[in-house]
Amino acid sequence: MNIDADGNVTPCCNWKSHNNADNPYCGNVKEQTLEQIWNGEVYRKIRRDMASGDLRESGCAKCMIIVRGEPSKFRYDEDVEAELTAREGPSSPYAKNMALLKQEVAAGAEVMEAKPTVLSVTPSYACNIRCVHCYQEPLRTKDLNQPSLFEQISDLAPVLSHISCGGGEPFLLPIWKDFIDQVDLDENPYLTFAACTNATLLTPGMVERIEKFKRVQIGISMDAGTKEVYENVRIKSKFETVDKNAERLVQITKSRPGSYVSMSMAVMRNNIEDVANFFIYSASRGATSGLSPVMAMPSDQAITCFNDPQKELPRWRAALDRAIEAVKTIDYVKHHISLDEEGVRRNYFAQIKFVRDQIPWEIEARHHIYIEGELPASLLERPTTKLDELIVIFSPAAASPAAAPLYFSKIDGARFSVFLPPGSYRIGIIKRFDWPKYNLSWQVKISANGLALFERTLGGSIQNDIINDAEPISSASAEGYAPIYAFQENTNTWVSAEAGSNVANCSYIGIRLNGEEKPPLKEVRVQWAFDYCTPVKVALQYSDDGNVWSTDAIHKPGLKDATKTFWWEAITAKSGVPHCYWRLLALANGSGHMAVGQIQFIKR
């Protein structure tokens, strides 16, 4: 069980990361007890699908561990087998629960009487340092603040195999100091203590507490192998302090079988050229190594997003090649990492390959043009400050609106600079630590000679027959119901400011086509919202200047069924000639405003 500072529960830390964002949460500890979540609907489905061997349906097929081919063994203390096979049977709470758990797993049970044995909890995102890539940066003030959760964790302590203390920085949080002080290791001598730490706050008192546990498994977020890169990524932290504390933690683990220190590196723009040094450094300290690529957020650190790919990609390729060579030459027996050197190397090669596979190398071959200029004032919703750092992101217009950005630029005032291939792009202005989101009302076109043309656009469906290279036009809109909503799936509705008798011959919604080539119209597909917000009669009209309008077709929406909501109708265009403007004008009012859930202009 993995619990975050919002109270959300997942089965593991990879459940909603690295291409798994669509996996559902299992529940929330603010609304349910751990026992209710443990046997809730999501957990039952996972068990059912896992028992049938269906990794895709279970939500685990894209797991980073599965993709990299790493083993994922049943996590428990094998020393308990002596109790389980004893003539008198298991006696400790841990052994009794483990016996029941094994039986239920073997039987493919969906509802478990056995209690969870592995718990990872992040009660707060509070941290004493700042990292350039950390998704928790905007969330530092979040605190679960659930006293009942600590009681539930304490109740589970006698049967736990593994407790992972999360943060923020776990050694900063009182909850973990209290837990370590209060846990009864005579009742459960099998409990493994684990934590992911930045290793900056390790005191002699904390070392003494940790040494009480039979097994200690510590992850140190290192993100570098050299002082310069480390302090460039992990702001307010000193390399020498962490180096000293890492050595102390390794000494604790040396005397405890099954214990280890593992150093992790979030591979990003600021440190990818230090990957080889990271493998060398972690091995020299007697620690294993783990790589995890930064993807999507923050966009200016993601290894899937570029400012100058033809400069960046060759350097990144060379850096990963150096990492392969470093892994080949490190003596893992000498550094007490493993007697199975080839096994370690296979694991590290797979990690490097996983990072390499996330990088879109194919864009290196494309022709890129240096673009610099000023963003339109109406596109910038807020000023850039040091506390509110903004970046502009770009994604090919043909890609899904949900696609991760492929290019980015920092914003200096209103100016930007980036290398882009000629073409059309969705754009978004976001804070560094915002998840990528595009302004679907805008698009930028990059010409072959390097000119950037910012245009308003519909930004709706990417179907080939739908006109998107246009901007919305409408009569006045009700507050909060902008016309752009009618051109985008799964958003709000456009509603006219006019209502009742003021709708007729006044309320309209349509498009102004961009570009020199304007396709002739085949039909208009309109999704009416409600019967009382639908005009009795409408006209499909066109214009070449936006002032003089001609009627192409008259249509009466189907209003016989008063229970209708959000239904589609098609209006066929009769004119086969291209025009600059098209609109749907109300000719006879309904009982309220004019409202459109969605509208699509279909080209011939």
Task: State the gist of this model.
Helices cover 23% and strands 26% of the residues.
Unreliable sequence segments: 383-387
The averaged pLDDT comes out at: 88
Question: Total number of β-strand segments?
Answer: 27
How many helices? The count is 14
- The protein's oligomeric status is single chain
Strand order of the largest sheet: 3-2-1-4-6-7-8-10-11
Q: Could you give the distance between the termini?
A: 54 Å
Structure description:
The chain is α+β, with helices and mostly antiparallel strands and 604 residues long. 23% of the residues lie in helices and 26% in strands. The chain has 14 helices and 27 strands. The longest helix has 21 residues, at 309-329.
Throw out a few tags for this protein.
26% strand, 604 residues, five-stranded antiparallel beta sheet, alpha+beta, globular, nine-stranded mixed beta sheet, 27 strands
